[in-house]
Write a structure and sequence with these properties.
- The complex is a heterodimer of chains A (about 210) and B (about 100).
- Chain A is about 60% helix and about 0% strand.
- Chain A has nine helices and no strands.
- With about 100 residues, chain B is mainly α.
- Chain B has a two-stranded antiparallel ribbon with strand order 1-2.
- Helix content of chain B is about 55%, strand content about 5%.
- The chains are: A mainly alpha (about 210), B mainly alpha (about 100).
- Chains A and B meet through helix 2, helix 3, helix 5, helix 6 and helix 7 of A and helix 1, helix 3 and helix 4 of B.
Chain lengths: ~210, ~100
């Protein structure tokens, strides 16, 4: 017997609609994507006005190119790539001409001299419990904002947004090996800072051998 | 594998908050090295904490501006937007979380 249940359109259906020029379908896609696009822009830029600009530019660019989107990745990944690109442009403009290109290979992009973990202790509370505490978000933002741009971008795309190493490399125009080294530096730097904050000081572990 | 080699191999084994594809060398070192166990766990917790963070709210005034600007660009590109049942405003559709695919 026919059911009268109306199924929600999938992202695939919405994309089909948007490509055919249906604005309502595009709006619904935007509705799904906007928390991630705005969140990504905010995390990279750490400033509301700039995050708004990057978000708007991202959706305008999606309108511009949606008909040509070849669906080699999910639409969310495509949106994340465009958003990171727009956020990068704003970051470069903000930093002025003195900024070194983020894609330029630098001496830190090697595994040698990666800083070794110093403060080693299990965390006093699990992450999901900490996430409920009001002051923790501010601490996370501060830790992220103090990371060098080139490490912050890789961490946000790979670890927070869940892009693959290859997708992160494509979005930032880096090689996969550079992404991996920068990711390791980002993870270690954030671990160090957050463990000093959230680690159990009574359970600090001293390394008995060279931990480098 | 020593501690330094374990650190270098971390990227291939820590995906989000998960440990994946543990090779024997990695597992063996980890099993016998308490500092490395804690460092790996700290990193997984760090990633989990960032992923669990509150979503950033888009200000309502910006939502309005964004909507207007996208609508204008859409009309420039695809022609006028028909009114009626097909124009469901995104403010009415709520703020769904993205579905992973």
């Amino acid at each position: 017997m026919e059911s009268h249940h109306v199924e929600e359109p999938t992202q695939f259906d919405l994309l089909r609609g948007a490509k055919a020029g249906n604005f309502s379908a595009f709006q619904q896609l935007l509705n799904i994507l906007q928390p991630r696009v705005y969140g990504l822009a905010w995390r990279i830029l750490q400033q509301q006005q700039d995050a708004e600009d990057a978000t708007q530019q991202t959706f305008l660019a999606m309108i511009e190119h949606i008909a040509d989107f070849r669906e080699e990745s999910s639409i969310a990944t495509w949106a994340m790539k465009i958003a990171s690109n727009n956020a990068l442009k704003i970051l470069r403009k903000r930093r002025g001409l003195n900024v070194i290109s983020l894609s330029q290979i630098q001496s830190e992009d090697q595994y040698s001299d990666v800083p070794t973990p110093d403060f080693i202790a299990p965390w006093a509370k699990p992450a999901d419990e900490l996430a409920q505490e009001a002051e923790v978000q501010a601490e996370l933002d501060t830790a992220l904002s103090q990371l060098d741009d080139k490490y912050r971008l890789v961490f946000i795309l790979r670890d927070v947004e869940g892009l693959s190493v290859r997708e992160t490399a494509e979005a930032l125009e880096l090689t996969e090996s550079t992404v991996k080294v920068r990711l390791l530096r980002a993870r270690l730097a954030l671990r160090e800072r957050l463990t000093r904050k959230f680690g159990n000081a009574l359970q600090v572990v001293k390394t008995t051998h060279n931990h480098s | 594998m020593n501690c330094e080699e374990l650190l270098k191999a971390l990227n291939d084994h820590v995906d989000g908050a998960e440990l994946t594809e543990l090779c024997e060398e990695f597992s063996q070192h980890l099993a016998g090295c308490n500092p490395c166990q804690i460092v790996v766990d700290n990193i997984r917790q760090t990633i989990s904490l960032y992923r669990a963070g509150e979503p950033y709210e888009m200000p309502a005034a910006f939502q309005e501006r964004l909507q207007q600007s996208l609508k204008s660009r859409w009309e420039e590109k695809f022609g006028s937007i028909s009114t009626g049942s097909s124009t469901v405003g995104f403010r009415e559709t709520g703020l769904d979380r993205p579905s992973e695919n």
